[in-house]
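step: validate -> pass
step: tokenize input -> pass
step: predict -> running
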Amino acid sequence: MVGIRGFSQPHPRAITFCLVSLLALTIFSGCSGGDGANQQSQQPLSASADLSPTVEEDLPANVPSSTASTATETGVSQQPARKLNTGLAAAVTTQAPAAASPNTEGAFDPPHNWPTIPLAVMVMPDGKVFAYGSGSNGSQGSTKYVVWDPTKTPDWNDLDPSSSLAFKLYNNDTQTDTFCAAHTLLFNGDALMLGGDFFTGTGIRNNGNNAVTTFTPGTETLTQETSPLKLMSYPRWYPTSVTLPNQETLIMGGRSAKPTSSIPAIYPDAPEVRQTDGTWRTLWNASTSHVNTTIKTNAIAAYGSSGWYYPRAWVHPNGGGVFIFGFNGRSYNLNPDNTGTLSRYAIAAGTTPFPGIATLSSVMYATGKILSIRKNPDTTPLTGPFKGNRTIVVDITGAIPAITPTNSLMNYTRHYGSLTVLADGTVWANGGGALPQAAGITLKMVDDNAVYSSELWNGNNWTLAATATRSRLYHSTALLLPDGRVFTGGGGAPGYKTQRNGEIYNPPYLYDASNILVTNRPIIESAPSQTTSIPWGSPIEITANGPITRITLVRSGSATHDFNNEARFFDYPGLTPQAAQTIISITAPANANIAPSGYYMIFAWNSAGVPSVAKIIKIG
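step: predict -> pass
step: emit ->
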């Protein structure tokens, strides 16, 4: 491994911790906390100095927050929390709450241990999950990274890492901390990480770096870019990356240096594009620095208040750029061609903007249609400004975005929760909490407002679904797996709990009418090889072991900080099987605007509504 050269240094105004006071500061102070000088220690994997031998069990929901935890500058000291696992066991043994009707609500498997906090996760072309973001004691900083094989039973044991068949824990031997970076899956199958935290070894945290890091699944190694031409122009912490139709990667948002009590934060002047040869161009004509371009103090980005915080952005299905949905309720178009342009959409007649907040999730659940959680405009003191259980559909297939409230509100507010598109196109909401701020303590630190019940959205209404046993708050994730289940895990760094654990949610389509997990699932016996990419609009032929009546395509996920902007879903219902009812042919999505180049999970469904385990194919 090689270290970084030519780094843009963080601004010297960095401070050692973020104050928790106003809402904007509590939410957007970001990943405060951490263990300072221990972040870059590279312990051998057999050593236990960096390993925590326990997993904290969540307290009951009725435990007052005043007795639940005490936040410290280096983390959280648990007071009455019960120890669940000594580290000697292979996995957490607590039973998940039984779902009343798994065939309508789904059900959770028991929680399982993880080597780190899985706060950034990606499904790789080989079906494994690449995760990064914390040390193996759950501390802030990407000193480790994990490769998890979800086809194997979770079996992590802190005291015997080498015994695990499902997990591999690696040292991050690069000199870049990818904590709170952007990430995306490249067309060659590598994971691309952009930016992250600039760690100086002094305890100063939450300033951006300009690093470019790749993970190669074949060798399971990290590689650092060292050429100055292949580093970003701006340090970025909390940015969003978007795969463009031409296989370039857009990077936008993020923060370069955090504020002090007297000087504003520093933000990048403009988005950038990583070209296919690894070099960069800056989109100067799409500048987001409009307050003072000399010292770059644009505390409000051009596309909305706090728009620097993992901006919600997707390739526009009609072409012409990237759609950005601001937390202020306004919509923007970023054209990444040449040096770029940035424009704001008019508000459609009769439409009122629905303001949101960066702690509420959004996801593209169908072509050009985005489901977004927004603030609920009730006026109840304290909870009113922060209540976030209103959901809207943003349709960007027309000339002006059309916004329509969903038929029902969510059952719960879910700050820091996740939205995940399932294999059948249903959207699953899990985790999060009721308030982003309570009594001057952020939800990152308080657990008694956590939401354990999940919900399902069928395109019309929200209904309650299975209940988890772990809180999933700040720095938690959710990710659809190739077998149709959903992984959810993480939370902490900082937070009330260091959640080095995960849970598996089994959606309703995996159960029969008797609420028993289906064991006789369809099998895809052959599918196009990843060695050959499938052109847009071309046939995709698979062979199954029985009659198939539906095919769905779901883009491989890439999730962090309650956002998975890579999500795409395509449905091919009402199929007529051919050739002894085992050969099925569909047509690939029409173009790169609706299906950006990359990897897609293809699921085959039988007439009972049960999916196969997906094959991962390559389109582009």
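step: describe -> The radius of gyration is 23 Å.
step: cleanup -> pass
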